[in-house]
Amino acid sequence: MMQPAAAELDIHLRILASRSDSSAAQVIPDAIIGDYHDYATLRGAAKGSDAVTFEHEHVPNEYLRALIAAGFNVQPQPAALINAQDKLIMRQRLQELGAPIPAFQAINSAEEAAHFWAQTGGHVCLKARRDGYDGKGVWFPGSEAELVALTTQLLKKDTPLMAEKKVALTRELSILVARRPSGETKEWPITQSVQRNGICAEAMAPAPDLSPQLEKRARDLGVEIAQSLGVTGVLAVELFAFTGENGVEDIAVNELAMRPHNTGHWTQDGSVTSQFEQHLRAVLDLPLGATEETAAITVMANVLGAPEDPQMPMRERVREVMERYPAVKIHLYGKAHRPGRKIGHVNLCGTDVQATREQAQAAAHFLVHAQWPDTV
Questions:
Q1: Where are the beta strands (DSSP E) in 14-123?
Q2: Which CATH superfamily is domain 169-369 in?
Q3: Which residues bind ATP (predicted)?
Q4: How many helices and strands in the chain, by DSSP H and E?
């Protein structure tokens, strides 16, 4: 999704992809097929580049440091990226910054897990410190015994763990910020997301019914984190919203992502500058684009693979959606069907939150199931 923006800005992209049929390799002509775990391959892909950046946080930091030592411009740099790679390090650094976060603890034994259960009154979320995404590597044990058994099992598999106090959230928000190496930052309007089975199903911006005070706090928090951690490119700060002691909505940081993020896909059609174009501008230290929204509300609905792929070809489903909802913008990823897999998303700009949500959801539903929901 960076390729159209790159072409328009006369930026040449090269992709290191694991497969020739991967989404990016399908649209970026200069594609090198290889494994990013192999340093020689990684360095070969970086040769001649003005900047090296990523679509996920899992590239080994020792390789990134080696690229920097060899004279390559890596953005974001490993010192920032580690805070998105390791959830415990992230929590510790955010605590040092004074950012609002849930109570947390490193879990190195079943005894430590049991102690944390007692400390939090059983409100425990257990997390793998590394490699978790889309609900993977996150567990909500229903009892102390279940927590202890789960911890024992995972530690035997050499899975580094941490635990944090489960937040009684009222909704999930995110603030996306872009920062360039020379220091300029731009943030987008606050996004509200809806998770189903640990996967982002829907996002809307600006977040409805958000107080000006909380909006400013979230914006300031995102900028402070980006600047303090030295993040470059797009940073997504995922937030838990909850009812504070005074009955007023408050926020705590959930996780960080240092790349274009699913909750920012709405910016493709609902913002002056998309997160994909902005990420390119930022890592190349170019002036950042305006981030104002272009509609009263923009809704993004993910297209997640159905339990069984319908017989109707996707191109016919796309045509049906076009005919019923001509304002819907469809973005497919060129991925084969797999149950629950993100194979695309739709964006819809509108003026009424509920009507826009219903139409975006209906469009995504048809792309998934080849039938309209009963509510339409």
A1: 15-17, 31-33, 104-107
A2: ATP-grasp fold, B domain (3.30.470.20)
A3: 87, 127, 164-167, 172, 254-255
A4: 13, 15
Percent of the chain that is helix, strand, coil (3-state, to 5) = 35, 25, 40
Which amino acid, residue 27?
A: V
Neighbours of 28 (CB within 10 A): 19
198, pLDDT greater than 80:
no
Q: What are phi and psi of 355, to 5 degrees?
A: -65, -40
pLDDT at 307: 94
pLDDT at 68: 97
Q: Residue 95: which pLDDT band, with cuts at 50, 70 and 90?
A: very high
| pLDDT single digits (tens) 128-152 | 998 776 667 899 999 999 999 999 9
- In 184-318, beta strands by DSSP E: 185-187, 191-196, 199-205, 233-243, 249-257, 297-304
CATH of domain 103-165: 3.30.1490.20
In terms of phi and psi (left: phi > 0; alpha: psi -120 to 50; beta: otherwise), the region of 275 is alpha
Residues 219-242: tens digit of each pLDDT: 999 999 999 999 999 999 999 999
Model-wide pTM > 0.90 = yes
Task: For the domain made up of 3-74, give the CATH fold.
Answer: Rossmann fold (3.40.50)
- C-alpha to C-alpha distance for 84 and 141, rounded to whole angstroms: 24
The binding site comprises: 87, 127, 164-167, 172, 254-255
CA dihedral 31, 78, 224, 222 (to 10 degrees): 40
